[in-house]
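Appendix B. Extra example for self-study. Work through it before the problem class; the solution is given directly after the inputs so you can check yourself.
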Amino acid sequence: MQEKPILDVRNLSTYFDIAEGTVKAVQDVSFTLSKNEVLGIVGETGSGKSVTVKTIAGLIDKPGYIAHGQILFDTDEFSRNGEKTTIDLAKIKKSMFSRIRGRHIGMIFQDPMTSLDPLYTIGRQMSETIIHHDKVSEEEAKQRAIKLLEQVGIPNPVERIDDYPFQLSGGQRQRVVIAIALSCNPEILIADEPSTALDVTVQAQILELMKELQEEYQSGTIFITHDLAVIAEIATKISVMYGSYQMEIASAEVIFENPMHPYTFALLNCIPRLDVKQAELAPIPGQPPVMMEPPRLCPFLPRCERATKKCYRELPEIEEIEDNHYIRCFNPVTKKVSVVKEDIE
Amino acid sequence: MKLLDVRNLKKYFPIRQGFLIERTVGFVKAVDDVSFDLERGKTHGIVGESGCGKTTIGKTILRLHEPTEGELLIDGEDTTFYFFKKKDALEHLNKNYFSLPAFNNGGKDLEPHQLKIYEAYKKANKDPKKALNFLFEDRRKKMKMFRQKAQIVFQDPMSSLNPRMTVGQMLSEPLIFHGFAKDIDEAVKMVKDLLSKVGLKPYHIDRYPHQFSGGQRQRIAVARAISVNPDLLVLDEPTSALDVSVQAQIVKLFKKLQEELNAGYLFISHDLALVRFICDSVSVMYLGRIVEQGDSQKIFDDPLHPYTRALLAAAPIADPKKKRNRKDLVGGQVPSPINRPKGCFFHPRCKYKIKGLCEEKYPPMYKIDDNHYVACHLYSDTSLKGGEKA
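Solution. Structure tokens for the complete assembly:
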């Protein structure tokens, strides 16, 4: 018996109306997130991964808007009798979101220098969130902030709490951002490329920290990255995005061992690996798509080596091909052979 | 003969303080006593975290920075002083050549690059100033030749390509300057060839950089670099700004071009997996110094320096079943290059440090194996790993 998911995203589409036309940044994205699950969204620049989570967190402003879809979230935040009700985050007012963000959805962004305010001490930025949501006294908020800093591994938190962001190193800043995101014990944690701006040894520290905190807080995490190696490290479930669509969703093991979508398959073949010596990389020909008024066809079509005639006529729907393995493709990779090599011959 | 031979290269940036009267209060030792060499058709990788000096090495070799000390030999010729002012050039020659004992008693056992300078020295009757004048006679020509021999591809093609020039203008300029094309018509023909060589179409010639995607722009930057048939190509994180699917295309292009040009590549990157794939030999840098150097295979399969091990342990692996080696992970972060720790620079983060030694003394380079060197006190015991001072 599966637990009821805490977040249920159905057919979400986010568009941006700009002077040159409509940019369809996210189209028909559906997934569920359960407690203590790490969903990794992986994709290249412009694939819509960041817009997806920003939509969920209510951070899409004009000219962007949610064109279709539902974001169902169970919460007691707005009910009077304390019972949980399902609300649709795609429909609620902007003003209501300030009770969701920070309290129920914590966010970690890529660059900690821009997500922290340089003019306030980290203690003040941390207690601000705690006071806003939990209505506690300043002194109590400070004590909680110190405890959080200790949890995320900042040495001497009692002294460091009065530091300004510039006094911390990049890795420490990201630790503070993580502490703020977790300060109200949110059910959902969104991490948008949290380790990309960091050096590799510091990145490893942050990933280890996030794994530890995940075990402790048991929140549902959405982890966004373009780095397949990072996603392999942390995610339990992976959604591969390309050109605004989800291409494949499955558990992390299945994605890496038995990828069925031609894009996932090709992507895994073109990354250099640290653990094995490769003789050759198999690049994907062509360029990533432009998202301005794209045709309603598979976005990977121009670069796909398994395209069939049907692919040029209609867009495949996302379907369950095995248990908990969803793909959007008419001609999936079913045999574990290198397709690229076959086609060259 | 080695294409590039970098010997004891140092690049210090002064830190100035004060208003009106500026004083130098210290130095950032961005590159501190670095040596390595590179042969034609081979790729040498330089890896390290931000601030370790890897980009400064590339820029100093190309003379976008002037070296503070050290020699840069290209094809067995010291090109260092050609770019100096006369006073500095004289100092360089005095220090590295004229003061050598061999220069003053017959010039025995000199290396080829020293021999060239010795001849000028002899011709000038051992007068350093006159010798410099002889050596500087064809200075312009030498500088121009160097500029043709050594080229670079930068990380971000959007900032390295002039947005106001078309691809044709950009690519024909070096061809005409270095005399590869006699006139515009010939240059246009060559540019079209170049474009198809890097996987673009001849009709792209009249387009501006903003009309291309990131990967295509990097192809233009590559075309510009290879247009003058360079022998040495410095690749400074050439794929970090690109998506993985495009990165593989560019890497493949580099490999193809290396076979055609038989050029030596200096590949600067923080991406260990990419370095493993592309490089024949690797230098691992930490705070301006090389901590481990050797054949790519040895560095990645049998890393010795605790920092190399930490780097490899920290890099995530694209396989959910393989777990990283937590034992070698380190805490903390890279200290400031202005205020480097005493002793071995890595000792505050090192798990294997030897008390009383690592805090005090910077380790020398030990030779462990053929073409495998490591700067770490752990390998000083020759019986342990067959190490000897190199």
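Self-check: The domain at 7-235 of chain A is CATH 3.40.50.300 (Rossmann fold). If your reasoning did not lead you there, revisit section 3.
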